[in-house]
Structures are given as C-alpha cells and as structure tokens.
Amino acid sequence: MRAVTADFVNRSDSPRISEIDQPTISDDDVLVQISYAGMNAADWQYSQGMVKTIPAADLNIMGFEAAGVVASVGRNVTGFREGDRIMFARTRTTGESGTFAEYVAVPANLACRVPDWMSMTEAAATPICFLTSYIALFADDLGNAKPGQKVLIHGGSGGVGSFAIQLAKYGGLSVAATGRAANRDYMIEMGADLAIDYTDQEKGIVAQTREWAPGGVDIVFDAVRQNTLPDALEALKPGGTLVSIATTLDTSNLEEQMRASHARGFRHVMCFAHWPDRLEKLPIVNILECQGIRIPPVEVVELADLQSAIGRLKSGHTRGKLVLKMAGE
C-alpha cells in the first residue's frame, strides 16, 4: 500500500511516498481504509525530527488523524462493522503508525463514528484540532476556563484556533483572537469579540488586548509558537494562565521561558503531553451537533501536492484545515 513516510533518525529533507505492507490488526483493532487524513503543523515538524514525543525510527508513517471506512474488525470489536465510516486520532507516543496511509490499524476504543451529516473531509479535519482546543481551554490542569472570563487566542484562523474561538464562546467566555488582517472577518464570523491583526506593529497585540481587557485577560491560548510569549505575558492579568501547544517543538529555551513566566506569577502550562490519554473521553460529535459549532473550512490536498501543502503548513498561513486525500469518499 502507499504511505507517506519520513526518516525520523536521519531527519531527511522531505517526506516521501513509499510502498509498504498493509498492517495487520489485533483482536481489539479495526482496519480502516483511509479516505482523508488531516494535516497539522506537527506533520512538518515531525518530518524534520522536531517532535520529541514520537519514538525515533528509520521509517515512520506521518499523520496524526484521519477518517475512513472500516475494512475489517478484530474478534473482540463489537461497536463497529465493515463499511462503517469512522474518524480517529493517534497519539504516536508509543510508536504506533501514522495516518498518511491507504490502510491503518486503529484500536476500536479510539475511533468515533462519523455522523450522516458530516462529510469525510470534515471528519478528517476534526479530531486533533477539536481535542487540542477543548482540552487546552477546559481541562482542570490546563486552561480551566470558566464562564465570564476573557481569553486571548493566538492563531485564531487556523484549525486549532477556529475551534478554540467557538469552544470558548460555547463555554461562556469573551474572546480576542490574533491573525492576519485578511482573516479578521473570518475570526469574527467564528465568534471572536475582538480580532487583532498581529502584523500591525503600530497598534500592537498587547495594546489592543489591554484596551479590550484593561485588567488583562484570564487566559492566553497560544496555538502558534513560542515567540508569542512576550505578548502573551503582557496581555495576562496577574495570576493568569498561559496555555501553549508548542511542546512538540525542540525549543531549547522552553524551560527557561516557563520559569520566567512562573517567576512573574503566571501559570504557564503545556497541553500536548496531556491530551493523548483522553482521546476517547470527549463527546466530539455531540458537542458539534448540539452546540452548533462549525467545522473550519477544509481544503483537499492531492498526494502529488504533498510537498507544497507541507510548505504552507510551515508558513503558518493556512485558514481552516488541509486534509490529504488517500482513497477519497
């Protein structure tokens, strides 16, 4: 079967399409023929050996989430049958296969049935961004967000940011979000009360945030990268919380930055290492369906365009979500 692989050990310059054996399944797995696989910033970071949470191997299949059709089920699986449409995410922390492949073996307890109203492209775009946003904002040991609080979301037009804006509003928070000027209307449409152009050096992120929240915001959710740290801390109220998803990056000064945050009286917490053990515990479909939360715009990427798509992810300037086409609908 075809799969997109990367050499984690030698940190090859680019991922490649390889022919590998189709996986076998255990008694508790389902074999999924992948229709589309969600693409995330961690994919290009992973291909360059920057993701520290994945065990090193000479040949690793890329990808962290996907949607597809059940091709076969293990003997202990009762919740799914052949032909079911499912979506799922992989933690990748114990060496399991990625999702950029024609077939993937998935533990049945980590899969979620795709409802009739959701397309397969939307399903492939949902698990990682939704889970990351929800857990970062509301987990007790992370954002611990409460109704009436104010949150600043860095990266409001990306896949994570698009869900984060909506989920924060669902949780009763007021929301400011940063993005490019071209994405201002989009972030407002997602529900942001304030959309900040991060490229506007004259006004600045901190000044605009402080005008909106004079005492500072309760939470900053950094869905971008660590160089947003100075603005994040200046925007926070005393004792506020900075939640970052940048722990996938091999950032040498990360611990130093966290110590500096704590020394100033802020909580600085990381969410990437927290959500893998909670994948199966959130009712994604129920929240989407009952709360009217919209799935961000989805753009389909053909395998032939993989390299250019990874370049776009690296730039950080994608709106919504890219999904890689494997078998299609």
TrEMBL record:
What EC number is given for this enzyme? 1.6.5.5
Q: Which SMART domains match?
A: PKS_ER (SM00829)
Keywords of the record: NADP, Oxidoreductase
Q: Which domain of life is it from?
A: Bacteria
PROSITE patterns hit by this protein: QOR_ZETA_CRYSTAL
Q: Which InterPro entries does the record associate with it? A: ADH-like_C, ADH-like_N, ER, GroES-like_sf, NAD(P)-bd_dom_sf, Quin_OxRdtase/zeta-crystal_CS
Look at the named UniProt entry and state the broad enzyme category this protein falls under: oxidoreductase
Q: Does the keyword NADP apply?
A: yes
Q: Does the record carry Oxidoreductase as a key word?
A: yes
Residue ranges of domain Enoyl reductase (ER) in the record: 10-324
Which GO cellular component does the record give, naming just one?
cytosol
UniProt-recorded name of the protein: NADPH2:quinone reductase
Organism from which the protein derives: Rhizorhapis suberifaciens (corky root of lettuce)
The upper taxonomy is: Bacteria, Pseudomonadati, Pseudomonadota, Alphaproteobacteria, Sphingomonadales
